[in-house]
Design a protein that fits this description.
By secondary structure, this protein is α+β, with helices and mostly antiparallel strands. Helices cover 37% and strands 30% of the residues. The protein is rod-shaped.
């Protein structure tokens, strides 16, 4: 009796090399994708922290009862982040022509010190404040 079983029971060297190459490409692609996700999450967290500090600075300045027209900057923190605060008196009149006193436009800009003496504007916000209302 003649038996028709094949003696080749496994993968050839070429099949193993192809499978290993495919696995390597997939692993490298996955590692790069995870690295990109990690960097993006880190940047998002930094952006959220800057926006929160910007909001807190805006609230602090606009609620100051001694608000005066001025431009100033806060001291940079360890990351080089600082805020430029611009306060301008507004000369507005209502519908009856009466001057509205003690109105100020408050603009706060988040800045970052960069190497070489350059500054980068990160974000800004503005509001109208009346120190007599608080």
């Amino acid at each position: 009796m003649w038996c028709r079983f094949s003696q080749n029971r496994g993968f050839t060297l070429l099949e193993l090399l192809m499978a290993m190459a495919l696995f390597t490409v997939a692993a490298v692609s996955l590692a790069e994708a995870l690295n990109l996700i990690s960097l993006t999450v880190g940047e998002s967290i930094d952006d959220a922290e800057v926006r929160e500090q910007l909001r807190a600075t805006m609230l602090e300045v606009s609620r100051d009862s001694a608000l005066t027209a001025e431009t100033r900057e806060t001291n940079p923190d360890k990351r080089g982040l600082y805020f430029r605060i611009e306060v301008e008196r507004l000369d507005l009149k209502n519908e009856e022509g009466q001057t509205l006193d003690n109105l100020f436009e408050v603009k706060v800009t988040a800045m970052r010190d960069l190497p070489g003496g350059r500054d980068e504007e990160l974000d800004s916000a503005s509001t109208i404040a009346n120190p007599n209302l608080l």
